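Hi R.,

As promised on Friday, here is the backbone we talked about, encoded as structure tokens. Could you run it through your design pipeline when you get a chance and send me back a sequence?
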């Protein structure tokens, strides 16, 4: 049995500028952090020939072209595993549709496990590129690139997505002391709302493709916020980092009417009065996780506990996608 483990992520700045509809014209910039919540893919050779899939559904079939799970189907086709017998099972620490990049993490973990099973080596760069190709080019998803890259590399990274499709990866230049402080004071709370990022990102893609001035202006602001976020984090200026999280959230809400809802807005404003300095929804929006930087963590935790909103504790992951068992 082979088990591949791929981290989920939180976005610290620049989210949304990693879509081709934006970066192909203007370059994108995102700061992303891998966290120790994972997608797992297990791979075994079944006794009987065929493909056996176990995820939220169960599939048993002979022809990979008939696989209903789109990512698994396209990955197996891309790797030309037509005569391969496999049993693939997926597990997750956090449910999908919650804004932590689970789709990209799953794609990366699946490719990694298949390469290992065939005794082939794959670098983080090629792993991320292959996963992006599957989701963006093969499946035509309105997806960005940060999820696949941060899942492949792990850590806390600054990604520049260039017009020529090149991606540069730079570790955030932050001291160990300040990194620990950042990790300690960032908190995640699950809103209970899942969402389909396709709706929000699809609209963003379409408007960007049409050179809609408001959407482009918004994403340009988000990119500048991301670049400023990098400087603030590297300087250890966490108070202004928290303030710019709020700026990011207010700009992000302008991109879609379904970016938030009344309950999330009430919780957000309440959090700022109960220990949080700044925050935003993680991911495309519409639900998932609220992330806050807090100066009084216990007060903020108590606020959400009284609301019966679950906190998810996390640490940063610095290993990226790896094989944990073989």
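Update: got your reply. Pasting your designed sequence below so it's all in one thread:
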């Amino acid at each position: 049995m082979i088990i591949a483990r791929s981290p989920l992520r939180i976005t610290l700045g620049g989210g949304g500028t990693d879509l081709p509809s934006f970066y192909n014209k203007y370059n994108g910039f995102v700061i992303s952090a891998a966290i120790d919540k994972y997608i797992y893919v297990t791979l075994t050779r079944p006794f009987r020939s065929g493909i056996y899939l176990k995820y939220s559904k169960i599939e048993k079939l002979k022809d990979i072209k008939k696989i209903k799970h789109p990512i698994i189907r396209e990955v197996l086709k891309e790797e030309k595993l037509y005569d391969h017998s496999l049993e693939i099972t997926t597990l997750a620490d956090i449910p999908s549709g919650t804004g932590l990049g689970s789709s990209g993490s799953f794609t990366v973990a699946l490719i990694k496990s298949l390469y290992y099973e065939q005794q082939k080596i794959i670098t983080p760069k090629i792993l991320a590129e292959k996963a992006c190709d599957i989701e963006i080019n093969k499946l035509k998803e309105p997806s960005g690139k940060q999820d696949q890259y941060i899942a492949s590399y792990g850590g806390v990274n600054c990604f520049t997505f260039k017009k020529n499709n090149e991606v540069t990866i730079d570790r955030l230049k932050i001291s160990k002391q300040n990194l620990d402080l950042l990790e300690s004071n960032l908190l995640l709370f699950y809103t209970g709302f899942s969402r389909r990022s396709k709706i929000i990102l699809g609209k963003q893609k379409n408007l960007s493709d049409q050179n809609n001035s408001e959407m482009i202006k918004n994403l340009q602001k988000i990119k500048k916020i991301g670049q400023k976020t990098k400087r603030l984090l590297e300087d250890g200026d966490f108070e202004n980092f928290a303030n710019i999280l709020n700026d990011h959230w207010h700009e992000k809400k302008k991109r879609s009417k379904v970016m938030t809802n009344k309950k999330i807005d009430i919780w957000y404003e309440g959090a700022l009065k109960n220990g949080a300095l700044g925050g935003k929804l993680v991911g495309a929006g519409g639900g998932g996780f609220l992330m806050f930087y807090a100066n009084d963590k216990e007060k903020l935790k108590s606020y959400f506990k009284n609301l019966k909103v679950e906190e998810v504790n996390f640490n940063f992951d610095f290993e990226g996608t790896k094989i944990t068992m073989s």
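One thing I noticed while checking it: The chain is about 40% helix and 25% strand.

Thanks again,
M.
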